[in-house]
Specification:
The protein is α+β, with helices and mostly antiparallel strands. It has one domain. The radius of gyration is 13 Å and the shape is globular. 23% of the residues lie in helices and 22% in strands. It has 2 helices and 4 strands. Strand 1 and strand 2 form a beta hairpin. The chain starts with a strand and ends with a strand. A two-stranded antiparallel ribbon has the order 1-2. A two-stranded antiparallel ribbon has the order 3-4.
Length: 82
């Protein structure tokens, strides 16, 4: 489910865990050795590689690092420590 017209945001979506797993790992099953995410936030940045390097330096585990989606968006995905 998604909406592009939520006031104060560029987009809002609710994804089942299976779609998040498929987007990160290419399988509908979330890896048992990685904590299941409770929320998914997206941020737009000017330099994805620089932002990804900063996240790694701060100790975040990147699930995807500067990955180009089939529709052209370049993303990095990470888990926060909490």
């Amino acid at each position: 489910m998604h909406a592009q017209n939520v006031e104060g945001s560029k987009g809002f979506a609710i994804w089942p865990l299976s779609l998040s797993a498929e987007d990160c790992f290419g399988t509908k099953i979330w890896s048992l050795d990685i904590p299941k995410p409770q929320v998914w936030l997206e941020f737009e940045v000017e330099d994805i590689k620089k932002a990804s390097e900063e996240m790694k330096r701060k100790g975040y585990k990147l699930l995807l690092d500067s990955f180009e989606e089939p529709y052209g968006q370049i993303v990095s995905r990470f888990l926060s420590p909490e």
